[in-house]
Amino acid sequence: MSSSGMQLLGFFLSLAGLGATVAATFMVEWKQRSQGTTHYFYEGLWMSCSGNDITTCEIHESLLKLPAEVQATRAVMLLSIFLSTVALMVSTVGMKCTRFMDGRAESKSITVMIGGIMFMVSGLLTIVITSWYVKMIIQTFHESNHLQSSEFGKAVFISWAGGLLTMAGGAFLGCRRCSRPESSESISSNHLLSTTNPKSNYV
Hints:
The protein is α+β, with helices and mostly antiparallel strands.
C-alpha cells in the first residue's frame, strides 16, 4: 500500500474513532442496574434515566453532587474530543492528498506526524479514563459486599473501541515512512539504483 493510501486509512480510522468517542460521551448507558425484570436504571455522564415501559431522564444539574469518577470521565472525554478535533484539522493540512502547503513537502510531513501523535494521545486518554471508570464501578461493587448490582453499560465498550480506532489511525498518520516526502523517497531509490548498477564508460 502506498504512503498516501496508508495516510487515508489512518485518517478514516481516526475519524471513526472520534465519532465513536463522541457517541459514547453523550450516551446514557455508562452504568446500569435493574430492579426485577422490568425496571431499570441507566446513568451517564450527563443524565440518568429510569423506567420500564416509559423512560424518564433527568439531567445532572449540579456538578459538585456527581461522583468523582463521573466528573473526571466527563472532563477527560471532552479533552479527548477536543484534541482529536484539532488533530483532524492538523492532519488534513499535512496529508499528501490535500493541496495545503504545496511545495513544502518536509513541512507537510512534520504536520501530519504531529496530527498523528495528537490522535494517539487522544485515543490513549479515552482508553485510560474509560478503564479507570470501569475500575471504580467494580471497586464500589466489591466494597458494598455485592449489595449494589451496578454494572457498566455498552457506552464503555463503544468508548474503548473509539480509543483503539483513534490510536490505530494516529499510528498510521504518525509513522515516519507514511509521512516522508516523496521527493526524498525517489532520491534515495535513484541513489540505490546508481550504486547497484554502475555504468562504465570506456572508450
